[in-house]
Records
---
Amino acid sequence: TQLLEQSPQFLSIQEGENLTVYCNSSSVFSSLQWYRQEPGEGPVLLVTVVTGGEVKKLKRLTFQFGDARKDSSLHITAAQPGDTGLYLCAGDNTDKLIFGTGTRLQVFP
Amino acid sequence: DTEVTQTPKHLVMGMTNKKSLKCEQHMGHRAMYWYKQKAKKPPELMFVYSYEKLSINESVPSRFSPECPNSSLLNLHLHALQPEDSALYLCASSYFSGTGTGELFFGEGSRLTVL
């Protein structure tokens, strides 16, 4: 069974702080996706990383794919209340996506 | 049009009822998915349809019966459900290339309550 463990599970921070979310697996994936889900909505794709060691930036969000394509991280700089939500990594093993355990982020003004 | 539309948004049913959840997309995607999401948990894959054929069933109980009438529609028929089946049911679609799932586009979900 392929598992994707995310840490931390919960994160409650003040506006302006930085944070990092980790996504770890013992399995290799062809690519890894990060989604954000807000209450009452379905998950929305933030980024896809494909190459080992790849780094992608999306405004204040920086995503990194591990060299061995088994793990990934999401770093948010100067968090804002609008970043609040459930962050999900998802490993693509060709025929299906396997979602990570999720990180629930709350950013207070 | 980059939307996946799910109906109904909310559904309350008894354990003896038969109901259906519906999902529609007009993005030309050839893969469609049903996920189940319990509160504060990640989505769990239930079924995958590729080119209108069921390609993955994640050992889902037979009281859940998927149907893909055409490439734009996906249904989930519900019968004799249990209270523990109460959850948010998410439909998703993707452009399935055969070399990877690709980006999943999710609907807003159907929140199901089984009494």
---
Amino acid sequence: AQSVSQHNHHVILSEAASLELGCNYSYGGTVNLFWYVQYPGQHLQLLLKYFSGDPLVKGIKGFEAEFIKSKFSFNLRKPSVQWSDTAEYFCAVKMDTGRRALTFGSGTRLQVQP
Amino acid sequence: DGGITQSPKYLFRKEGQNVTLSCEQNLNHDAMYWYRQDPGQGLRLIYYSQIVNDFQKGDIAEGYSVSREKKESFPLTVTSAQKNPTAFYLCASRGQGEQYFGPGTRLTVT
């Protein structure tokens, strides 16, 4: 069965540190890729998405992600995190299986210490 | 102000009772989704609907039911057959290739 893996379950960083969260999926066909963020007490909201074209995509709040097709990966990065980035981050994949729904990873809880 | 509303925010029920969670959207989206969020497990798809009067089971549909009589509404019923119903439930709709989420309903069954 197709799946999405986020290997980092809980990450603790100091402000100004660089961030990279891993996301891998197991599907050999065409994919659309997403990163969502859930700030404490808020809606799940979209950070960035990849459909096609340049594999390096930029999102809101200084986040970016790179699609590496050969590695089935879509890692999220930010050069310098802020305390306000404390949240839970979810990678999601839409696979061209005919089911127009997202498959989510288990999430990564990021805690940024001031 | 367009968006997705879910009510109530918190819901408490006794074991053995069915309960219906509301989801309404005014984004004019055809597709709507229900997910369940549990700590450490991400979001898992319960049911989805691509169009009015049509819906499909997701990965964890057992013990749940839905209806889609109107484009704006996609209510989820958690039945007494659901063995572990306590969770955070998220509704979403899809437009322009991406999903938009509601604020969620936290259901506690005791």
